[in-house]
Amino acid sequence: HYEIVASQGKKVSVGLEIAVIYSLAQLHFVEENYKDSLKYMRIWLTKAENPGPQPHIFIGQIYYQMQDFPKAILEIEKAIRIAKERDLTIKENWWGLLRYLYFEREDWPKVVEILEILVDDFPKREYWLQLGGIYGQQGFENKQMYAYESAHVAGFIDREKDIINYAGLLMQSEVPARAAKWLDRGMDEGTVERTAVNLRTLGQ
Q1: HSE-CB for 203 with a 13 A CA cutoff
Q2: pLDDT confidence bin for 6, thresholds 50/70/90
Q3: What is the mean pLDDT of residues 152-158?
Q4: DSSP 106-138
Q5: What predicted TM-score, i.e. pTM, was given to this entire model?
Q6: pLDDT tens for residues 67-126?
Q7: Which of 31, 68, 102, 156 supports an S-S bond with 107, CB 3.0-4.6 Å?
């Protein structure tokens, strides 16, 4: 029925036509008909006046589902640019999708750039630890230590693997007393298992 309305041309108001076309794009997206969804969004863009960031986010999501990551990146970045120009809120999931797209392309400088924005605007455990991990992967040991230290201050170093990694970074930074303190506390609290390897690390 939406398609019937959309096919009426000048017989329906412009406002109704635009709304119906957008709805068709959304319905095809839900039905996983991504090519048709993209087709209707392209039509919608020719008719809509001065669209905001959200339609470009939607198109980026369509390209993401189609595994066309370069075009998805272009659309998400365009949406963020529009939001900045209009002083609108840039949503966390926009950055999250862009981070994932660059991660899949192994564009580490861009992943780091986005994670630095995320830890500033939406400080969460996963962002701090991923940022620290990529710093280490790229050979920025000092920045990796700072990221883990920030995560520790925020209370995010609360799992065995994270505590062991944090202790290891403190050892590399020549602060063994602090490394021992947090590893020992992790064992006392039952977060870190008293295995031979962990006890040997604590002894060192």
Answers
A1: 7
A2: confident
A3: 93
A4: T-HHHHHHHHHHHHHHS--HHHHHHHHHHHHHT
A5: 0.85
A6: 999 999 999 999 999 999 999 999 999 999 999 999 999 999 999 999 999 999 999 999
A7: 102
Q: What is the largest CA-CA distance in the chain?
A: 82
Collect all residues with Cβ–Cβ distance below 8 Å to 66 and sequence separation of at least 6. 34, 35, 38
Q: 175-202, pLDDT tens digit by residue?
A: 999 999 999 999 999 999 999 999 999 9
Q: How far apart are CA 68 and CA 56, in angstroms?
A: 14
